[in-house]
């Protein structure tokens, strides 16, 4: 990290300082290395001594965590000449970030947000990883309501902003798809004159002082088990990643970096991970998150990858859909039936709606009950999709499936 003076901590809360400067910022005491500042967020106050023992030269118990981290992240950002790319959207943010990072790294010193470090804590922490020689910083911006993306963008000051798509996510807080588009549009509004907006073909952009790149339906082909988009060969086969790759390639072009012939993308955990199961079976672990659009895409991919195998879907609740939740769950169930899913295990209260869509299956209340069903539900040779909103915790089911012995 570009070093910061510890005088920046004044007025942010209760600080204990043992050096004039800090060279890193962490909120997890286990990740502290000598020279770091430990910001005790939430229960972090229980680990102040651990942070010091691990080498922290300063600790801060902030009066308000976001304000403190925003000041720190913003201070590092002000001292950096890196070009910042910010990515938002209803789905595909993390995958697009992962793809863009893999594209950039061979040509430029790049840092990218870890996993889904995309909120008022994660974004400043990513900015605090900027070094003097960092050329590209790739951020992911999440929103839970109006104003959050604007706040994050004010700290990050991106030159390039990408909106992957607009879908029915966080409707409890923004009410409609129009509200989702308005919230995502805060990123485009935050771009400087001369910046670049990368958006879906139908996304509204009112500004005429920025470059606008619209992503339509990109041409693609499958070659030797890889997917070729824009002349670049990627190590994925899922169709829903094609749009993400096209968005990432547009950002790469806006950065002025060359397109490689081939790239290996290391996707974040639980996002379409594939594992072999007994008897030639297949597990698609997409348990990190879910919404109506990504559910349909994942079900289509299950059918594509299953081939002649029995198709099993273990699907949990899709959260934050507000009053439209029951309708969307029923529609996903209808899609599962139309696609030919053979068996569906619905997990969670809202997930009852999947079975109302006509697909064959059963219902359980929670992940603990789902774990009791796994051995009976999944047969050797099955193709299995596991997917739900993050709060359901279906990664435990995916893990249990990988431990089923060969029968």
What can be said about this structure in brief?
The chain has 407 residues and is of the alpha/beta class. The protein has 3 domains: 4-63, MurE/MurF, N-terminal domain (Udp-n-acetylmuramoylalanyl-d-glutamate--2,6- Diaminopimelate Ligase, Chain: A, domain 1); 72-263, UDP-N-acetylmuramoyl-L-alanine:D-glutamate ligase (3-Layer(aba) Sandwich), CATH 3.40.1190.10; 273-402, Protein-Tyrosine Phosphatase, Chain A (Alpha-Beta Complex), CATH 3.90.190.20. The protein has helices at 48-53, 65-78, 93-104, 122-127, 148-156, 171-174, 177-190, 240-255, 292-306, 325-339, 352-356, 367-377, 395-402; strands at residues 4-5, 13-17, 21-22, 24-26, 36-39, 58-62, 83-88, 110-112, 136-140, 160-163, 196-200, 211-215, 220-223, 226-229, 232-234, 262-263, 273-277, 281-286, 311-316, 343-347, 361-364, 383-387.
Classification by helices and strands: alpha/beta
Beta-strand content bin? 15-25%
Q: Write the CATH architecture name of the largest domain.
A: 3-Layer(aba) Sandwich
CATH evolutionary superfamily of the largest domain: Mur-like, catalytic domain
Biggest β-sheet: strands ordered side by side in the sheet: 8-9-7-10-11-12
Using the coordinates above, name the CATH class of the largest domain: Alpha Beta
Determine the number of helices (DSSP H or I, runs of at least 4 residues).
Answer: 13
Strand runs, count = 22
Helix percentage: 25-40%
* Poorly predicted regions: none
Mean of residue pLDDT values: 94
Using the coordinates shown, work out and report the CATH topology of the largest domain: UDP-N-acetylmuramoyl-L-alanine:D-glutamate ligase
Main pleated-sheet profile: 6 strands, parallel
User: So what's the overall shape?
Assistant: globular
Number of domains: 3
């Amino acid at each position: 990290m570009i070093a910061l003076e510890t005088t920046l901590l004044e007025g942010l809360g209760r600080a204990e300082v043992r050096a004039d400067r800090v060279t890193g910022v962490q909120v997890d005491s286990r990740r502290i290395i000598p020279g770091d500042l430990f910001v005790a967020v939430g229960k972090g106050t229980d680990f102040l001594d651990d942070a010091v023992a691990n080498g922290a030269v300063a600790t801060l118990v902030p009066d308000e965590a976001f304000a403190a981290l925003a000041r720190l992240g913003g201070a590092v950002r002000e001292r950096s000449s890196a070009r910042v790319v910010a990515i938002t959207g209803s789905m595909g943010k993390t995958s697009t970030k992962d793809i863009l990072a893999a594209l950039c790294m061979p040509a430029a010193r790049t840092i990218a947000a870890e996993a889904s470090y995309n909120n008022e804590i994660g974004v400043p922490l990513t900015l605090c990883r900027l070094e003097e020689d960092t050329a590209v910083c790739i951020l992911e911006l999440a929103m839970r309501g109006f104003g959050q993306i604007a706040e994050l963008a004010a700290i990050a000051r991106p030159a390039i902003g990408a909106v992957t798509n607009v879908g029915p996510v966080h409707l409890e807080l923004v009410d409609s798809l129009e509200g989702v588009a308005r919230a995502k549009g805060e990123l485009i509004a935050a771009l400087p004159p001369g910046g670049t907006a990368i958006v879906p073909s139908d996304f509204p952009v009112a500004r005429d002082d920025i470059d606008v790149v619209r992503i339509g339906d990109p041409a693609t082909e499958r070659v030797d088990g890889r997917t070729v988009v824009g002349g670049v060969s990627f190590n994925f086969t899922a169709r829903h990643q094609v749009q993400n790759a096209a968005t990432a390639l547009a950002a790469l072009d806006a950065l002025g970096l060359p397109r490689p012939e081939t790239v290996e993308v290391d996707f974040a955990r639980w996002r379409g991970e594939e594992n072999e199961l007994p008897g030639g079976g297949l597990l698609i672990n997409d348990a990190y998150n879910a919404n109506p659009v990504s559910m349909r895409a994942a079900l289509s991919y299950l059918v594509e990858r299953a081939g002649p195998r029995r198709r099993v879907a273990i699907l949990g609740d899709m959260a934050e859909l507000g009053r439209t939740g029951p309708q969307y769950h029923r529609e996903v169930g209808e899609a599962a039936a139309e696609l030919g899913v053979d068996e569906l295990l619905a997990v969670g209260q809202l997930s009852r709606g999947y079975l109302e869509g006509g697909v064959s299956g059963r219902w359980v209340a929670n992940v603990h009950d789902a774990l009791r069903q796994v051995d009976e539900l999944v047969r050797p040779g099955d193709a299995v999709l596991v997917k739900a909103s993050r709060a359901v915790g279906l990664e435990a089911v995916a893990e249990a499936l990988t431990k089923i012995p060969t029968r």
